[in-house]
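Before the break, one more example. Copy the sequence into your notebook; we will annotate it together after we see the structure.
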Amino acid sequence: MIEFKNVAFKYNTNEQNALDDVNFTIEDGKWVSILGHNGSGKSTIAKLMIGLLEASKGQILYDGNVLSENTVDDVRKHVGIVFQNPDNQFVGYNVRYDMAFGLENHQVPREDMIRLIDEFASKVDMKDYLDREPQTLSGGQKQRVAIAGILALNCDVIILDEATSMLDPEGTKEITKLILELKEKYHKTIIMITHDLDLARYSDHIIVLNQGKVIEEGTPEEVFQKRELLQQTNLDVPFSLRFYLEANHNEHLKKDTKLMEALWEYHLKK
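Here is what the structure looks like once it is written out:
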């Protein structure tokens, strides 16, 4: 479990807080989306979670233990992050070496390293690309490699910071399918930093940020009911969900359980 308790952060002493008195809890094994427009503070939260930044105020806890200089190395053994541009994470001349880099840093024996690379490259459908140079891969393939590297390190928590913003619709579908598999089959905790409500609808829980503050949280259905609030933060409800919500507000249609279930399934498949 990850907890933010009264967390504040500012990049420069003369500026206002990038985050201001932020509180939330992320349960193990859940997919949580942190939504907000550019500058809302969501990427700052991702960097704080893995100790790239240090909170100006408050505490960040992992299973009750405070994130600090003394605990950050242990936290990073269990938490991995995929940044918006996967090119920034590649350090090897091919996919195989890139996956090996993290394992070498964790002093994994060579025989285990070879096994882990093959195992997790297969799980993300990238085994046939192990000898390819990173620059020859598509955006979706690069994201899969980054995720495979995290899985090989046995990270329990995976943070994806705008990980689909550079992808085409097909690439986004591929990554969404993979994230659902990571959560449901491998019981990973997924933290998605995004402004894409269409992607966030698959989450178990949503946290909405605006100007460094948490302004709303709940299930996707609960949060998406707050259309005016979302529009004020430059976030718009996907059409398929708007269709479902309008029907849900109609007392006559709402009583038709089969219709409402069909509309919700239609929304999820869009």
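The mean pLDDT is 84. The first strand starts at residue 2 and ends at 9. Try to locate both features in your own notes.
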